[in-house]
Amino acid sequence: MDWAAILYLGVTFGLFAIFVAIVIHTCRDKHKETGEAPKYTMLEDD
Amino acid sequence: MEKPVYNTDIVRSFVHWSLLWGLVAILVGVIVSLQMVEPDLNFPPYLTFGRLRPIHTNAGIYGWGVGVIFATFIYMVQRLCKTPLWSNKLAKFQLWFFNATIIASAITLLLGYTTSKEYHEMEWPIDVMVVILWVVFAVNILMTILKRQEEQMYISLWYMMAALVGVAILYLVNAAALPVSLFKSYSAYAGTNDANVHWWFGHNAVAMALTAPPLAMFYYFLPKTTGVPIYSHRLSIIAFWSLIFMYLWTGAHHLLWTPVPDWVQTLAMAFSVMLIAPSWGSVFNGYLSMNGQWHQMKENYLVKFLIIGLTFYGLQTLQGPMQAIRSFSAFIHYTDWVPAHIHMGTMGWVSMISYASIYYLVPRIYGRELYSVPLANMHFWLTLVGQLVWSISLWVAGVLQAGMWNATNSDGSLTYTFMETMVEMYPYWWARAAGGFIFFLGIIIFIYNLFMTVRKGKDVVAPIVTAAGRN
Ligand code: HEM
Ligand code: HEM
């Protein structure tokens, strides 16, 4: 494997790790209320 | 807290101009579809299929699609952030520069100046204009988000930010070129690299201009119209990040069976199939938001546009991954199947959501009730029928074309000449032109209805939030 391939794989897995962290953070029960709160602001008058 | 004063004048102007460019795009669409069946309708050198086709595609994507993005983003960002636009002057400059860019593009394309890269045909001086235009727009929206008075970031804002950053990166990378004269430049990349960069741009332009912004609009205007919140905000966030993570790798599905390395093609294929999940995450979220509200599909023309538009998005994102599979691609690539896919996206998904957004905006920015709900309903049916006739006729044509190209005699020679396969397309191309004409009638009625709303619509004292769309 050359350096370009290693860098390519590194970036891919790095991005994947960030993505997984976001999903875990969003799905946590602790985050349930704050995560759903924005949708109710849509019912306010413009 | 005092209610902020939002800039609605600029939203009005962007609505007017995007309607004009939308009308031009669709009219030229009908003309090019007729040129394919009646060669006498080509008037060289300027008004030939070859010159008008890029006018149609660019006016469609950049004049109509992006014009509506400008109008709706400026409207939504102020309300989602509960703060006025960061700079009204910059927005005014953006409006005139936008029109100047569209007009300069149309003139140079008619004169035959082109980079020949699809969706990026305009030569380098216009690239510079596009970059200035987008930077001005992005800075204005991002600064408005930065000074927001609302702590919560609703999902539409995420899609808006993705579009702003995404388009900027894609356009800049693909625009890298060496100018050799005022209207001629050569790409900075060569051979397969050039093709790879170009389709990385091409497919992500679909993501950042034709997917993320309509999703931002859908998530904003659906709850505003139905009066109930979306099903799950967290689901929308997860779908958003997965879409962002996956889209960037899929460009090479436009280059299957080409000299681009096999592993790049396989990667694109795998990520394209994975894209079903985030796309349908949004589709399910939209459908589930209608729980207990399905009766509004009958009563509220806005809901019809939004939900059928979303359904087209769902179908588009099932068909797209299928086309990204090598064996399937070998059959349909280069055939009329592909324009049918594209127009389900542009006429079904993008235009339906844009129509709904403008129907929502106009009564509010003018303080008038919509002139005629029956006309809006008629517009809906013309759009739906026009789009279905357009796409279905070309799907059938594409399968027939592929079948004829692949047919061989027992000695291995081709059964049909290319000319024979072309002649076979004529009835379907006529049907496509008819579908396009029906769709075109729809936009005429739409514009008439909006014009009459502004001229003759009844004044509304306070903006109506949930009931305006009902008949
Ligand atoms: C999961 C999502 C999607 C996937 C995987 C996908 C996949 C594809 C593939 C494989 C092609 C190339 C077909 C060929 O030339 O053989 C294509 C073309 C195209 N798609 Fe999609 N598609 C998706 C969604 C969309 C959406 C939402 C739109 C919105 C309008 C769209 C617009 C287009 C356009 C404009 C082209 C034509 C590019 C060209 O000029 O060759 N696609 N798509
Ligand atoms: C009345 C409606 C429309 C008609 C009759 C129409 C017609 C056509 C025709 C005849 C072509 C050339 C196909 C070919 O080369 O084989 C085309 C291509 C295209 N049109 Fe449209 N169109 C319509 C609406 C739209 C809209 C609203 C948009 C965008 C918002 C759009 C975007 C495109 C794109 C991206 C292509 C390139 C397709 C490709 O690469 O194969 N069209 N259209």
Walk me through the structure:
Chain A is an all-alpha fold and 46 residues long. Chain A has one domain. Chain A contains 2 helices and no strands. The longest helix of chain A is centred in the N-terminal third of the chain and has 25 residues, at 3-27. The model of chain A has no long low-confidence stretch (mean pLDDT 90). Chain B has a domain at 1-14 and 42-210: Cytochrome C Oxidase, Chain A (Up-down Bundle). Chain B contains 16 helices and 2 strands. In chain B, strand 1 and strand 2 form a beta hairpin. Chain B starts with 8 loop residues before the first helix and ends in a 15-residue tail after the last helix.
Largest interface: A-B, 20 and 24 residues
Bound molecules: protoporphyrin IX containing FE
Biggest beta-sheet profile of chain A: none
Helix content range of chain B? over 70%
Tell me the structural class of chain A. mainly alpha
Span between termini of chain B = 35 Å
Q: Portion of residues in helices of chain A?
A: over 70%
Using the CA coordinates, give the radius of gyration of chain B.
Answer: 22 Å
Specify the oligomeric state: heterodimer
Order of helices and strands of chain A: HH
Largest sheet: number of strands, sense, barrel closure of chain B? 2 strands, antiparallel
Q: What is the CATH topology of the domain at 1-14 and 42-210 in chain B?
A: Cytochrome C Oxidase, Chain A
**Average of the residue pLDDT scores of chain A:** 90
CATH architecture of the domain at 1-14 and 42-210 in chain B: Up-down Bundle
CATH C-level name of the domain at 1-14 and 42-210 in chain B = Mainly Alpha
Tell me what portion of residues of chain B adopts beta-strand conformation: under 5%
> Quick check: average pLDDT of chain B?
95
Query: How many helices of chain A in DSSP terms?
Result: 2
The N- to C-terminal Cα distance of chain A equals: 56 Å
Q: What is the approximate shape of chain A?
A: elongated
